[in-house]
Known about the structure:
Helix content: 10-25%
Largest sheet: 8 strands, mixed
Strand content: 15-25%
Order of helices and strands: HHEHEEHEEHEEHEEEEHEEH
Shape: globular
Number of strands: 13
Amino acid sequence: MVFFRSRPNWQLPESRVTAEGVFWQRRRFMKSLIGAGVGFAAASAGGCQRSPAMDADLANTLGEPLSGARLNAAFADAGREPTPQQYASRYNNFYEFGSSKDIWASAQALPTDPWSLEVTGLVKNPQAFSLDDLTQRFALEERIYRFRCVEAWAMVVPWIGFPMRLLIAAVEPNSAAKYVRFTSYYDAAVCPGPSLGFARNLPWPYTEGLTVEEMANDLAFFAVGVYGRRLPKQHGAPIRMVVPWKYGFKGAKSIVKIEFVAEQPATYWNTLAPNEYKFEANVEPDVPHPRWSQAKERLIGKSTAMFSWEQQPTVIYNGYGEYVAGLYG
């Protein structure tokens, strides 16, 4: 089987993804070069448009600039340009704060300072990391990843963080560790959950899981920033999972604990509806959700009407088959 990995030939090897404003300024500069007759590596930039303005309230939720992260050339191109941040940062799932996609304002109640991440379980070196520990001990890099929600919408996001395998090396799991459980922040006094009556029966805190082999894969990533800034609360500040070959619900937000365990852990959505949300949850266009097809995906855009968004075919493993297909036989 041939797995898709897009590498457009217009990509400039020295290009970087930083804050969104800088990103679009560079695109406008490339367009000006074309207008002056200097279009030798920028021909396709001529079709780009300026990103629409971000409203002030949303802009106030964005994190401080996060400098020093170099773009990883292996993950510099996701096949299309990153989704403008004013769309990506206001269309999020964060069920601890409600079921609306427009959750960004409610998520600002999340307390993130101070923060502690406990890593424990079947490891030689259990540790507790502050956010400063994480950002100073592990070299940060930028990666542009496709993001695919199980609800069949998608975006492209420039994350800042570090590969999960670096954390594995730091704590040294033993041979009995086969799985990893990730637990998100939860405080009933802070996190109201969905407003519907069933919210009191949800299996809080939010937990997710991977095999140790999946966590060690080069794609598996801990994000502490996005669009050149520290991770906003609606994206799962201050640290979240990013596993781009899986559906988005596998990416636990606001992680407070990581445990290496021997048995497959219970996880949030798989516990709620195991017939709809599998533990593995890889992006597979030929495997429909019980209530909708996964053959196509909609790219989020400026309209609030989901069904007006551009559609494209879903790709097996979200386009990352060359990295992960070997994990699944």
